[in-house]
Every structure is written in structure tokens, then in C-alpha cells.
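The protein record quoted for completeness.
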Amino acid sequence: MMNRRLLLALLLLCFFRSSPAAAADPPCDKYPQPQQPRCEKLWKQLNQESVADISRFGLDQLKRRQDGKISQEQHLKENMEFIKQSTDKRLKLLAERMAQDQDTRQQPAEKPLQR
């Protein structure tokens, strides 16, 4: 039970660094300074949305490891693949949401009907 908690905690720590500097790190530092706070907010939301998937993966993998279905090397390899896929997915979603924000801001406001 302790190993499960430790593994889950370590897995979650890889995904969720709570400092503002970490949030502005790679995904958000490529945006202009005025857009970075919005990017950070979206990145945190995406991380929160991923919690269930990350936890499910970690627990399923731990069970397979404890059952002897995967080796230590397979465990590590799967972790690295999952982290890469999960991060790539979240980065893609971040870019889409930032683009949507840009599109929304660039659309002119509707003019009121004149009589």
C-alpha cells in the first residue's frame, strides 16, 4: 500500500509543479508576456483535467507490475511513453485554446442595429 501511494505521488509530482515559474516554463514562455498569465491558467486547467487519466494509468501500471505482468524496464519505458504522450496531448490542447482566445479577441464586436 505504501509503494502504491509513493508511486502515485511521484507520478503526480512529475505532472503538477505548482510554482508560477514552472507554469510559465516551456509551454507558456513562447507566448508574449501579456498572454502568459492566460496561458498559465489554461495549462493549470489542462493539468487538472488530466488528473483522472494520470491516476488511472499509474494505478493500472502498478497493478500489472505487482502481478508480474511487466518488468521494471517495461514499467519505466511505459512511464516515459505515457508522460510524453500526455504532455504532447496537453501541449496541443493548450495551443488550440490559446488560438481560440486569439480568434475571439480579434473578431470585431457586433455593431448595434441603427434605426
